[in-house]
Amino acid sequence: MQETADDIVASVLATAGPRVGTSAYSTRSIAELTGLSQSLASRAVSRIRYPENMVESPPGTTSAYSKFAAQGHSPLALAEFWVEFPSIAVRFEPVTTPGMARPRVFERRAASLMAALWVSGAAAWSSDRPTKLEAHPQREGPYTVTWVPGEGSWEDFLARVSNLLSSCERSPAAVPSALLQRLASRVGHGLHGVRWVRGVDTAPESPLASDSNRVTVTEFPSPGRSERNRWLPRVELSATEQIAIALRKEMTDSGFAPGDRISVSAMTDRLGLDPGTVRTGMRQLADDGLLVSHDRGFRVPQLNGADVIDLYASRLHVGMVILRACAIQPKHRLLPARLALGALEAVARQGSRADVGEADLRFQQELAEASGLTQSARSFHALTLRVRMFISVLKLDYSPAADRLVSEDRRILAAVLEGRSKDAVRVWRTKQDNAVRHMSAVAPDTFDAALWDNLSH
């Protein structure tokens, strides 16, 4: 039970970003969020921050910081965090300008950094791959810790990082906000691509930062969560889904209309995949009704009001089943959905409002994952892929509805967490009614309002 609690709490801390220093991430708040007891949550925070095999003792005894200062050393601060698969370098440096002491905030920030390492999956990185971490003179010395698979244990690496954190000044500046934001945005990718240097990278990374596969964090994959990061929102994508994403972007960028031909070679160039993989993926999309297959290749499908009603009626009723199941799940099962809602709120507040619809769909899929209903989650995912394609084909803009989407999702999650399934279903029904009427506005002549009302009640 404690090991499960450790993983859940680590996921909360790792994705918190700079807000980890606030009261929203006290052990009591974490316990309320996850449904764990406060003693389990508190013990988990301590185990994450202070690995069992670390040399120094946890708070309550003489701290590493006091010993470090007594020896005449200057306190430390994080100076660099660099990930180049399959290696990690964490460098500290002596503080030249002391910051304002806030020990509690510092400890929560330190725990967040340790949690990001905890859930990254780096412990399983293979030593068969050549090390890509480039040489750097500042990465040598007593204040630098490097993880290279096959050269020492992961547990020892964590212990050394924790020890150096304990020798840092007790100021939030020792673990900067920009680094915490970078870790929070990349932890679902195993920290791949994190490159932070004090004084160079000062701006937080956007919630919509793109990874090396040309897809954004707001895109989500097929159902099924890895055992290693099962409490984190998923971000890995199958080749078929990458093709679907590229198609939607191509439609937007090139102005494709229903009936237009989609070239396999163009998708091959855009994705960097081999033609066989692209063609297989496009055939799968055609089988799912997201493309039309013909002798000469593939075309953008034609859509009418009946197609829209069919799609949203199916999503409405599958979603109702999912919400009823979510309402009887333990709170910690809903953690990925809570984190996805936070991403939606961040996009609506800070990012491109045009992407809020995508973040909204991701939140919905996380609820489907949390339901524990495998078949319903898969059905809902297939229907959501179709929604995305419809949005692209019809060139819909959901940015004016950003505030409403955030409000609806907050109410749905609150109702589910409190076990009020009827209230969650009521909001969901209203949400789908708004969505179908918005999408059907592009085909008013073929939208049968009476049919929709009949199917949705």
Topology:
Elements: H1 2-14, H2 27-34, H3 38-49, H4 64-70, E1 76-84, E2 87-94, H5 103-119, E3 144-147, H6 154-166, H7 177-186, E4 195-197, H8 239-254, E5 261-262, H9 264-271, H10 275-287, E6 292-294, E7 297-299, H11 305-326, H12 335-349, H13 356-370, H14 374-394, H15 402-417, H16 421-440, H17 449-455
Antiparallel strand pairs: 1-2, 1-4, 2-3, 5-7, 6-7
Helix pairs in contact: 1-3, 1-5, 2-3, 3-5, 5-6, 8-10, 8-14, 9-10, 11-14, 11-16, 12-13, 12-15, 13-14, 13-15, 15-16
Describe the protein in words:
By secondary structure, this protein is of the alpha+beta class. It folds into 3 domains: 196 residues, no CATH class; 46 residues; 151 residues, Four Helix Bundle (Hemerythrin (Met), subunit A), CATH 1.20.120. Helix content is 51%, strand content 7%. The chain is built from 17 helices and 7 strands. The protein has a 4-stranded antiparallel beta sheet with strand order 3-2-1-4, covered by helices on one side. A 3-stranded antiparallel beta sheet has the order 5-7-6. The longest helix has 22 residues. It is globular and about 75 Å long. The chain starts with a helix and ends with a helix.
